[in-house]
Design a protein that fits this description.
Radius of gyration: 29 Å
CATH superfamily of the largest domain: Baseplate protein-like domain - beta roll fold
Number of domains: 5
Shape: globular
Order of helices and strands: EEEEHEEEHEEHEHEEEEEHEEEEHEEEEH
Distance between the termini: 39 Å
Number of helices: 7
Structural class: mainly beta
Mean pLDDT: 77
Length: about 450
């Protein structure tokens, strides 16, 4: 079955223009990098010419009847010659909109992460942004029962009139001084988890956001703070802002097969695999400045968290333990106010995980836009792979999806796959660095 595409452009007055014939198109959703984007070249017609003056208007794209893109038109380009002409349209989803021109700086103090997200999109709600989805809300909180130790002093000797008289007259008792009559006792209490728990964190926790740099998009601001609470931010095809974690446990697509000698499954066109550690580092160091760096107290409150890359490129197994082989440091500076050690540790781990999966390039180019069962390919999903050529087998997470159509090649789909359960999965704040690295190392094998 051939793939169909339908584009609807809505102007500010509510008037719509629909075009269903295109020479070529490209629709990209990459959840590891920037906002979704698309490029369209409609077949030259009177309706297509109406799109030339549509910059800044809302655009929706349906592929095979399913909504696959919602955004704003950035640019239109028209060219003409003796043989005719064409129009090219470029658009991005609403998270690519600039935030510094829509949000006042002074209104951000004390907001929680969820309130910050609502503030950033309020000028674009409900059109083109429908709202916010937090469909795995249970993961936003780490309600952990923990142990609290309390130290206090107590008298080592029973209370009697004689002991009281001795204490009042600074006399010793039992051959010791007055100070040794007391001992320090440490008691351990079990405290139920909740918002007072040191392991509590989530979208309801204040971000201490006080600045937005010029030129930052909505996605730039939200990703900076989502990394501290182990979440990802992206825009769905129907215009919903998602603050979620990758869905590693979803039912996978139909298995993709690529065997030696170029024998492939019917829909597989080509497979490209490349791994790189050029942008990875042996040590990730997060440095946060105290609230008052000029004072002695402020300097003491500075925070520094270090996380080591568990990849085999930076480690060697020697004498029964893993030791660091290559020392390459990456420093991240955090603005004032980020004093929470657990947030800084989460940020360091997230940066390490991001660089690891971004260095794993594993692209499958497929015929058409659907799998063998007719399901439209989508990001944030899993697929099983059997690749004899590149020696890869198992389940992978779809980090990006690119729907294309070209006059020469027809309809294709490019999937970028990364190993599952690395990015934003091992995020237990109470887990020690040793246990965390041991858990991640078994999945990073490049």
């Amino acid at each position: 079955m051939s793939d169909t595409i339908l584009v609807t452009v809505t102007d500010w007055d509510g008037k719509t223009t629909t075009v269903d014939k295109f020479t070529s198109y490209e629709i990209v959703h990459d959840y590891l990098s920037g906002p979704g984007r698309c490029t369209l070249v409609p077949t030259h017609s009177s309706d297509a010419r109406l799109l030339f003056n549509s910059a800044g208007q809302k655009l929706q794209i349906k592929v095979n009847g399913a909504l696959q893109f919602t955004g704003i038109i950035d640019e239109t380009e028209s060219s003409a010659s003796e043989g005719g002409g064409n129009i090219q349209i470029t658009a991005r989803d609403a998270l690519g909109l600039l935030s510094d021109c829509t949000v006042q700086r002074t209104c951000l103090r004390g907001l929680t992460f969820l309130q910050l997200a609502q503030k950033l999109i309020e000028d674009w709600t409900p059109d083109p942004i429908q709202g916010i989805i937090t469909n795995n809300a249970a993961n936003y909180y780490r309600m952990v029962t923990y142990k609290r130790k309390v130290r206090h002093r107590r008298n080592k000797y029973p209370f009697t009139p004689t002991s009281l008289w001795n204490a009042m007259n600074f006399r010793t008792q039992g051959g010791s001084t007055l100070g040794s009559q007391y001992e320090v006792v440490v008691r351990t209490y079990t405290v139920k988890g909740g918002k007072d728990s040191p392991y509590f964190r989530g979208i309801e926790e204040p971000t201490r956001e006080t600045y937005i740099s010029a030129g930052e998009t909505i996605l730039d601001v939200l990703k900076r703070y989502a990394a501290q609470i182990a979440h990802a931010v992206w825009m769905t095809s129907d215009g919903w802002l998602c603050i979620v974690r990758p869905r590693y446990d979803e039912a996978p697509y139909t298995k993709l097969v690529f065997k030696t000698g170029g024998v492939t499954q019917g829909l597989v066109k080509a497979v490209t695999h490349n791994v790189s550690i050029a942008d990875r580092f042996g040590l990730y160091r997060i440095r946060a400045q105290g609230r008052s760096s000029k004072s002695q107290k402020g300097r003491k409150r500075n925070r520094k968290i270090e996380v080591k890359d568990p990849g085999p490129a930076f480690w060697k197994y020697s004498n029964g333990s893993w030791t660091e082989r290559l020392h390459k440091v990456k420093d991240f500076d955090v603005k004032k106010g980020s004093q929470s050690l657990k947030r800084l540790r989460r940020l360091a781990r997230t940066r390490m995980e991001e660089s690891a999966v971004k260095g794993f390039q594993y692209q499958w180019e497929l015929h058409g836009h659907t799998d063998a069962n007719g399901a439209l390919w989508a990001p944030d999903a899993c697929v099983d792979v059997e690749d004899e050529v590149n020696n890869r087998k198992g389940r992978f997470w779809i980090a990006s999806r690119n729907l294309r159509r070209d006059p020469d090649t027809g309809s294709t789909c490019v999937l970028n796959l990364v190993p599952e359960k690395i990015w934003l999965y091992n995020d237990h704040d109470e887990m020690s660095d040793t246990a965390y690295l041991a858990d991640v190392r078994k999945r990073i094998d490049w």
